[in-house]
What does this fold into?
Amino acid sequence: MPHTQILSHMKNQESQRPFDEEESNQQITTQYYSRLRFVVVRDVCKVERKLNLPGLVNDSLITIGGLFPVHFRVVEPDLTFKSPAESLHCEGFNFRAFRWVQTMIFTIDEINRDPSLLPNITLGYRIFDSCDTHFQALRAAVTLINGQEESVIDYDCTPSTLAIIGDSGSTQSMVVTRMLGLFRIPLVSYFSTCACLSDKAEYPAFLRTVPSDYFQVRALAQLVKHFGWTWVGTIAGDDDYGRYGIQMFSEQIEALGACIAFSHTIPKVNTKEEIEAIVNTIRKSRAKVILVFAIEQDTDTLIQEVMRQNITGIQWLASEAWVTSAMLSRQDNAILVGTLGFALRRAQIPGLQQFLQKVHPSTAAQNVLVTEFWETLFQCSLQTSENGTSQCTGSEDIKSRVNIYSDVSQLRVSYNVYKGIYAIAHALHNLSYCKDGKGPFENNSCANTTDIKPWQLLHYLKHVNFTNRLGEEVVFDENGDPNPSYDLINWRETADGSVRYVTVGQFGGSFDSNHRLQIDESAIVWNNGKKEIPRSTCSVGCVRGTRKAVRQGQPACCFDCISCADGEISNETGGGSCAVD
It folds into this structure.
């Protein structure tokens, strides 16, 4: 029933009997517009339950939402179901993700100061913590489109947020955009790379500034072929990112004639025995090249056990989720020296480091995220401490701390946040300059700039095309994906035992190019600091006069070499068959 008809129907009912407030409040007609969990009581959208999520908010007439994993995990909730659901508690502060948060705020401030982009329009933001879990991401997304107000005088129950930047994890983005897609609310991700998200039938309102894993997997497969590795082990994180990535990689290298030696998955909730079993397989396998397609937390769990068992001589291939991870490149991970993997292209964002260093609790009074950032960074308390923790003075200096938060030497994901915000701003700019009679909507109409609908912004986002301040073209293909572009990264050990990332190649190009792989082999340092290319085969190629005989029940890469029969020859080294002389 249309909204106006519902209101009319309710008023007719009221005119037919005396007003009873308690009875009237029970006559609630549920409405499913673009605000979930809202009901209509006369002219007011009413929130059924507030989620009270911690976040950073600076509202304006046009507000952009943000979803970031400011914490690594959620504390297990109470599942007794004896009381209403409470807000979840998250733990494990993520300094890297907090830099992404501040990059979003920095970018919006930069746009608001630019007189040539969205003049006379001030953008606002609402940013919430997804805690690196899909259910908390969904809670945050619902809060973004509902708002946290008790009630809203809004006859259409229009979403309070027109577009959302987020999330980092593919699983989180899949869950969130399934819900947002019902209402054509755009979700622009800065780090969700699963190729599955390119399916517009499934995810119509999803776009991203990070390339699809389809291209990363192609690059990894070409890398394996280039160095002649035919026997490769694979380890995936137990999520959509890891599973889809390894599945595509396996298909690609098998098509190129290589084989998978073993394939394991790192459980999200794992036991010591499960991780030991994976590492035992690594230790026993002939495969000396292993791809780990997982997020940094899962990879760290694996590598800790590899270190405990002192397994060396492995050439590690890293997926982009951890190839530039500070968590993994710390000094005691010497076994990872020589690691190769493809990373998102990095950029220098002028002014960002100074902005990051100015964050202070006094500028965000009572904000729990800024407070936790400060207390965690300086190991002090802004409140009266009762557990022996020193008191924060407020004079602590971010510049005095060497931390991934203020390290702007590897702005890869942060740069994708930057591009995503600018894409939304340019879409809004183009929408606001639409001329009546030449618009893209029904009867060549334009959007009402005082009442922009998310689906109208989505239309302009899909067609955005501009060159940003750093000289890069920002454009999306028909699947909402950007041009693929990667750096091939090699891990080097420095004099003090730490690791630095060295670019030794590139992969990418425009949408219609062949996406060629370019490698500077002479610049690569291999595992354990060696300069010789490692070998990883199940069987050594057969010499002349012999042929391959695949071992029963094993992959084609595992074979024995059998002498040719009398009257037959094999002239090819490594050849597979004999021919009649």
Remarks:
- The chain is about 30% helix and 20% strand.
- The domain at 213-346+483-529 is CATH 3.40.50.2300 (Rossmann fold).
